[in-house]
Every structure is written in structure tokens, then in C-alpha cells.
Amino acid sequence: MTALPSLPAQAERLIELGVHTLAGLSEGEVRKYAEAAGSAEALLVVHPDRVPASALVPLLSRKGRPGFVVVDMADVDQFAPTGVELPDGPLYLVTAPDRGDHLANWTPEEALPVITAEGRSPLVLTEGIHWLLQQPEVLERNLCFMTIASRLPKPKGGFDARTPAIWISNGTGRDGRERRDAPKVGWCWWGNRHTWLGIASAAGRTGGEGGGDRLRTV
Fold first, then answer.
1. Where are the alpha helices (DSSP H) in 49-169?
2. Would strands 121-122 and 61-62 be described as parallel, antiparallel, or unpaired?
3. With left for phi above 0 and alpha for psi between -120 and 50, is residue 105 left, alpha or beta?
4. Under a CB-based contact definition with an 8 Å cutoff, are residues 174 and 120 in contact?
5. Using 50, 70 and 90 to split pLDDT, how confident is the model at 131?
6. CA 194/CA 198 separation, integer angstroms
7. Domain residue spans of the chain
8. The CA-based dihedral angle spanning residues 207, 212, 216, 218, taken in that order and rounded to the nearest 10 degrees
9. How far, in Å, CA of 93 to CA of 111, rounded?
10. pTM (2 decimals)?
11. Residues 36-44: what's their mean pLDDT?
12. HSE-CB of 68 using CA atoms within 13 angstroms
């Protein structure tokens, strides 16, 4: 995969898409954060508390088709970060995101301890979306990914068996033909395998309060 754009370039991309407005941030705050991070090779992310997945997905695009959430995942924003600690503050950095192709055809349950043993952390859904906003080419047919650090807690304990994933619509069924080739946020079962879905992860997360004035690693 190609290297991520520079952080200032990523900041401009988020501003171009209006993500800063959705997050209640000024253009200056986003630019200041990117500048404070220096030359770090990382993905610039808005905290999901500021902008939920449902607001970000329509900003995705592939072959002129906007992204969408499957109709039976209306509760997508209730899938909370689980088993990972996100930095405080509205903006943070994700280092070395990876699609997890080597974990294709593994269940999330099987893959999680492997990711942890590698010293990495699974992605949350909004991190995966931010990655595709900056590098749409990461999403390829038969090489898509799950974001297993986003899970839906059950009222009486435990988690919903669904896990979010991002792939490319075939334009069949309830997707509609007009959505063929569009980026698609859907779900897979926690205990199921899919040969065409890797399990995405990152080397770490770095964040800070005050627009990037004080950076720390989690």
C-alpha cells in the first residue's frame, strides 16, 4: 500500500469534506493539530464522540458512488470502541493502519488474540472510514476489512454478535443497482469467516488535548 498523505494534506482533505464542521471544529484547529504533530506518519482521525460513523460514511466515494450503511444496521452509531483506549480530545493519530489481509478467512474471535500478540490494536469503525477518506484505493474488491474494535453492548451484558465491516457493494438485493461499486458499511458475525475480509489493525494511537499541543501515546 502507498504511504499516507502528510498530516497537513490530511487536514485539508477533512476540511474539504466538511468533517471539521460536523465535529464542531474550526479549520484552524484542524490545521494546528496537524502542524503540531510534525512529520509523523499517521492517520488523522476525529474522535467518534465528535462525528459518528453514520455521518462519515456518505463522505466515502468510489467510482462516483457515495458510501452507505446497510439498511439492517440502523444502530451503527451504537457500536462503541471496545477493548481499545482512544486518546482524549477531538483529534488523534492512528499509526500504521493495516488492512489485515493475512487474517482473511479468520473469525474476529480467532484474530483478536493474534493482533494483540503482534503488539497491535484492532481498528474501530470510524478509524477505518477515516482511512478510506484519505486513501480510497485501500478498499479493493476481494480485499476489504472488518473493524472489530467497534462492538454493540447488550443491555444485560455481553455483546451483539455482529461486527462492522467495510466492503464494496455489488448492487444486489436491498442495496439497489444504483449502488453497485459504492463503499458499503455492513456487518458480519463475530464467529464467521470471510475469505474477502481482512481484519484491520493499527500499531497504536497518539493524541492530545488542546488541538495537539500535548501529544501522548495510548
1. 53-56, 108-117, 125-134
2. unpaired
3. left
4. no
5. very high
6. 8
7. 7-217
8. 0
9. 23
10. 0.94
11. 92
12. 18
